[in-house]
Amino acid sequence: MERLFFLIFASVAVVSALCVVLFRNPVRSALALMLCLLQVACVFVLLRSPFLAVVQVFVYVGAVMVLFLFVVMILDIRQAELEAFFPPRNRWLMYAIIPVITFEFLLVILGTSFEGFGPGAGGETKVEVIGRALFTEYLLPFEVVSVLLLVAMVGAIVMAKKRWD
Amino acid sequence: MIFGLRDVMAVIPEAIVAGAACLLLLVDFLIAKKRKIIVAALSIAAVAAAAFFSLYLVGTDVMWKKVFAGMFVVDGFSTFFKFVLYLATVLSMMLSFHYVKEEDINTGEYYTLMLFSLSGMMIAASASDLLSIYVAVELMSIPVYVLVGFLQKDARSNEAAMKYVILGAFSSGVLLYGISFIYGITGTTELSAVAGALADPSMHTPALSIAIIMLVAGFGFKIAGVPFHMWAPDAYEGAPTPITGFMSAGPKAAACAAVLRVFTEGLQPAYSRWVVIVAIVAVLSLVYGNIVAIAQKNIKRMLAYSSIGHVGYALLGLVAGGTEGASSVMYYMAVYAFMNLGAFSIIIMMRKGEQKGEMIEDYTGLAKTRGGMALLMLIFMFSLAGLPPTAGFIGKFYIFMALIHKGMVGLAVIAVLMSAVGAYFYIRIVMLMYMKDPVNPVETASSRGLYYALAIAAAGTILLGVYPGYFIKLAQMAGGSL
Amino acid sequence: MLLNYLPVLLMSGFAAFMAGMILYVSSILSPHHPYREKLTAWECGMEPVGDADTGHFRVHFFIIAILFILFDVETLFLLPWAVVIADKSISLLAYIEMFIFIGVLAVGLVYAWAKGALDWI
Questions:
Q1: Does A4 touch chain C (CB under 8 A)?
Q2: Does ipTM exceed 0.90?
Q3: Which chains touch C (3 or more CB pairs under 8 A)?
């Protein structure tokens, strides 16, 4: 049963990943990427990590893809500009590199033994473990992250607001 | 209680700086545009308070113990670097008083962003866990990204910020990937535990080599070593000049501290794997930085390439290893802060009204029009070139001694040769100032902050050059703790 | 434990199905007679001038997106906190720590508010 769900999620993820590359309209590509990332979140749930699934949806789909869509919609990338930047006669290098990298990936993945890499055992749920560790062991990075978020906020507002009028 | 008084006391300096920055963010709204110097004065006061507490912590029982579950440690090494960072920040802030009015960027956020960056740098110097180091390096870099792009009207500044942000974000990703590999191999991110796990030779898988390469790449970007230096010349040229000074002294020293800790404490059992890579980066930085600087016409760009060269010297100190190597890097970073900020303060003095003072030819004949300035520039240039009796000479000498004592004479020879090559473009400026006649009339800025900063930088450069003993002993005591 | 998440999957699947069906069925059942005048962009009754993408982009969208991301990540940190706050051994500690976290981000909120980043002008 779990295997069936995994097959569904994995196949939708692969198909939507292909769609990202094959669609002509960049907005549709971005939406296909969103779908792919949502499937990855579902796979995280299957791996008994619901917190990671939530993080994936919040951060990747909710934040990163929104910014992607912003850029895609602001910068209307026309085919002609794309051709000027990456002309068809230069594409042979890309067509040569991609099979090599794919072959390397396959070699590494098929050659590694994945014993003992299954989903974690039951007991305390993962969110509790993460929560407990966050407030005891990893307290310092946690508080530094709050200052980091503040700095990002100040930085974004300082950069985006015009100051000379 | 899991955390006690010792944990809280250990982070008091960082808490003061970060807390003051948060407070000043809000207080800034109450201060009129003409009086933003109050924010600057308050930030310098905050740094002074943090320095006082850092000094107070020396000798208490907070020192030398890991707090916050192994994430943070206050030892001689971190205290030494913190004082270098305090110095770099205070000098940069003093240099900014005049510059921000001149360029019309006189806002409170300028100083609060520098304070936030300082807090990140302080944590990076004290962090004893890969995760803390990563988060602290991010905290130190993000305000600098913003500060580099602070001149909104200048296209160069915007371009510099964009390049720096994109390359910085990418290299942070590479660094984090390397850290995750280390975690995968050893099962922990705390540096002493990583060293303990790597002591077993069966752990030295090919994955470890990949992890080391990624760590070198990630950190190499932060300190602008070749071949990860692409952002440095543009960022240094486009940024507001006090920020260029700040960038070259502060984040570089903090990243060097992090590199020293990670490689000498965490990856020590894998010494043979990383020493070759780091030595290659060091030699490439030396050669590239010193040679390309010769062709530069913009003095800020030239100082950027010289900064790349100086990173080469610092990395050679890391390659030498041991107490002597570590303390030579620490001393070099202290010396570098003084002399680089001194050089940048002269450049800022030349920025007045329409005159930008950024091209090397603007300094022609300065000795006849502004004798005092030319003399100070001579001191800083001689120090950067490594001529006695300035601090730069002692810094380089100490690094070469560390290399020779470890038997790496070849590297020392390359460093000395490149030092001679580098002397060319530093002495060229001195020659232009003293041997040529002035072409254009020169206006210079006069601001008390600038004068104090110049005085401190010059005093430091000369003092560390003629009387280095006390400071070298400090560096050795601090470096011995590694 | 996975069975707890089946309702979530069913609900999101059903929502996606509904949305898809609405769009698909309406595209089948609607009349489709396009001609040139119907397909041009609406510009208050005039002939369209220029392109939409080269127009004036309000940077304020970007500030709103950034503020959203930052407070979103803050909410993300609240999730594991909510799960462990009931545990007596660390609840006081976690409470204080989370309030420091929220306090720092509250400074950011006040800053954004006072700077006018939350006004839509």
A1: no
A2: yes
A3: A, B
